[in-house]
Recover the amino acids of this structure.
């Protein structure tokens, strides 16, 4: 049961629905299986399309970064130092310079930006790549949430001014918002991270946080304003219109596909298993022939009718499949409900006779009938399903907001959601708060400090993954 034991439910569904296999013999590294990988690819395609429409060029950089390049930006390397996997040997011989498995690609990409960017006419330059990155996590690893190899898309940009860089950040926020809310039907808030929690080397970090069913927040994407920190050490200079040399203004950003998948599974899922939004579902419609074995002829007619429905749906670009296996229909219902297929079609003798189809929605369990000739309207049902999932997710998300005046009140709501409170700006007080929860953001409005009571700013805190 999801409510009683979320963690157990989560691990079980990852295995049962063939999302991933956790038994690979390296801790924190997973095998992605068909159901999970399909969903990741759907979100990847959608995101890449949006990025390329907004002027990003696709690229693919090597997985290895030489140590002198990784170490160029001192804050950046300090932030990742303890998590880097190093390649030190080629065969039996030690390498002259060790090579890092990318923990993120700012340094390797900006090394090349410095060669590509000469003039203001080369800017803005925006690139993106979907790759795996490697971080030796010392914290407890969790499948899809915290691993030592994870899949993401990372975007990188260079601009002629801070204003343009900030405009890009706003555009990326919209693109990620589209991916998370419209495509995956999930809710989120963007939190500007406090100084100590920024991406190493960034001027500002904006994080997309969602709320998991156990009341913990999950950071699913980040967008960073890098200022000129990297362009100065990587010599990314351009000639302005009046012939002066200037350093470029940069931003970088990325959503984690694994974490998005974890949120998708956890937030929409129920006691029967996955509940998938139609846009990401590997199978959108499962057709189950109801065979009574009265006569061979009748069974064949029903199977033919099921096939006809499948072909019709496929011609409409709908991912449809007929389950003509030997199991009892009830067992098939159970299986495909667990896999989260958005729509089930039941096809029996009565349906065949009147050229109708009985349909059952995974998200509501509601059954209704549709005429064969109306199958073109399935997309409309899909969008109703997506709307419903989006609404439900938003409702749960909104129920997870609390206010706390004191540290005790923060503790009372810990693990229930996102708590709004206050902080005076002193390090001591932040440490006391962070002993029990994470400070997701520090805002501008005035709220008294939850620890010492003096005047302060509004903060959002939560227990987070
Ligand atoms: Zn204080």
């Amino acid at each position: 049961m999801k409510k009683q034991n979320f963690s157990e439910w989560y691990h079980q569904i990852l295995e049962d629905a063939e999302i991933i296999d956790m038994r690979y013999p390296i801790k924190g590294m997973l095998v992605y299986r068909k159901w999970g990988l399909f969903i990741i690819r759907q979100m990847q395609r959608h995101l890449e399309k949006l990025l390329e429409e907004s002027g990003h060029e696709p690229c693919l950089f090597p997985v290895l970064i030489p140590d002198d390049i990784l170490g160029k930006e001192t804050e950046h390397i300090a932030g990742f130092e303890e998590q880097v996997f190093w390649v030190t040997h080629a065969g039996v011989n030690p390498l002259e310079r060790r090579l890092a498995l990318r923990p993120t690609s700012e340094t390797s990409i900006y090394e090349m930006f410095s060669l590509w960017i000469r003039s203001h006419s080369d800017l803005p330059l925006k690139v993106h790549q979907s790759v795996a990155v490697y971080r030796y996590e010392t914290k407890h690893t969790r499948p899809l949430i915290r691993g030592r190899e994870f899949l993401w898309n990372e975007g990188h940009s260079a601009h002629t001014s801070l204003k343009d860089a900030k405009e890009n950040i706003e555009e990326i926020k919209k693109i990620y918002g589209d991916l998370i809310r419209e495509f995956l039907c999930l809710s989120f808030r963007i939190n500007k991270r406090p100084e100590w929690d920024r991406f190493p080397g960034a001027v500002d970090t904006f994080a997309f946080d969602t709320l998991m069913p156990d009341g913990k927040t999950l950071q699913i994407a980040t967008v960073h304003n890098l200022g000129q920190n990297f362009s100065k050490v990587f010599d990314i200079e351009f000639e302005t219109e009046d012939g002066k040399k200037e350093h470029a203004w940069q931003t970088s950003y990325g959503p984690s596909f694994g974490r998005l998948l974890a949120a998708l599974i956890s937030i929409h899922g129920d006691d029967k298993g996955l509940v998938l939004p139609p846009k990401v579902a590997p199978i959108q419609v499962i057709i189950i022939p109801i065979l009574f074995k009265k006569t061979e002829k009748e069974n064949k007619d029903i199977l033919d009718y099921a096939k006809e429905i499948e072909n019709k749906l496929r011609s409409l670009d709908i991912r449809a499949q007929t389950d003509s296996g030997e199991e009892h229909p009830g067992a098939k219902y159970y299986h495909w409900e667990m896999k989260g297929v958005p729509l089930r079609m039941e096809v029996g003798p009565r349906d065949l006779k009147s050229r109708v189809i009985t349909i059952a929605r995974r998200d509501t369990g509601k059954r209704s009938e549709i005429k064969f000739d109306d199958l073109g309207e399935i997309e409309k049902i899909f969008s109703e399903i997506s709307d419903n999932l989006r609404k439900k997710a938003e409702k749960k998300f909104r129920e997870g907001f609390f206010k706390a005046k004191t540290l005790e009140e923060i503790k009372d709501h810990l693990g229930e959601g996102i708590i709004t409170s206050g902080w005076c700006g002193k390090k001591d007080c932040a440490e006391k708060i962070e002993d029990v929860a994470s400070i997701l953001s520090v805002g501008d409005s005035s709220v008294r400090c939850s620890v010492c009571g003096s005047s302060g700013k509004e903060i959002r805190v939560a227990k987070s993954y």
